[in-house]
Amino acid sequence: MSISGQNLSIVIVTLKSEKVIHDCIKSINLNLPIIVVEQSKNRNFKDELENKYKNLKCILSNSNLGMGSGNNIGIKAADTDYVMILNPDTVLKSDTIEELIFAAKSLPNFEILAPLEEDFSNYEIHSNKEKIDLNLDQSPFQVDYVDGFAMLLNKKKLKDEVYFDKNFFMYLENNDLCLRTRKNGGKIFIAPKSRIKHLAAKAVDEKFSIEVEYSRNWHWIWSKFYFNKKHYGYIKALKECLPTYLSSMIKFIFYFLINNKMKKKIYFNRASGFYNAFIGRSSWYRPTIPTD
How many CB atoms within 10 Å of residue 261? Predict the structure, then answer.
């Protein structure tokens, strides 16, 4: 079955996203089924969304599981062959989904397809022989990785039913999925005529920005180590991450001495994230954000 508006669902993972989620939902111009996975116990948020949008179902995960695990819940709850993953701080153009569907029909063997972010590159091509000139060619093109804030998944083509690796809490879960897809012979594309706006780092209410920043610093280095160890081995992970650990320890000592509490916490978290990944501990760190 080819993709159409009848076999496509939207999945959005949220946490304290009340200030941005409505702009995202309203930009989904087709009457597509939307599954919101709210990473809390916020019944009021669930009721508000389901009462306001008749094509929307909100699932409460009851705890902050991370983007990958949250997306897995939504993907498995969708009864369509195709699922589009969106961050709540994304806004679609009027024809984003139509252009994505049009591109997908010309790519019967795609596993992952993504729109083009209008302000920055949301893809990587490590094996690219010639730089792609989007001013000359607007055809879909194959890439190695796409960012996880907007990606269309062909559920029947993806060979790994785990979808996102739940061990990642934040960062590189999309790179891991893309790499596993390519290792299984799958193909990943960008549809340049399909455009999207990503507000970036606006998914969680800004009043929790410091807690989110602490979490980002812990999880970035943890995920980088875990990703490299998983796919390339322990030595590669050490080579990629040890310099960050050493510089973080030096900066932590410096900011400790001058009593800069925020910077001290940031570099402590970077060092802690590396240490926990190094000794094989899970990505346990969570920002102090209420989930009630």
Answer: 9
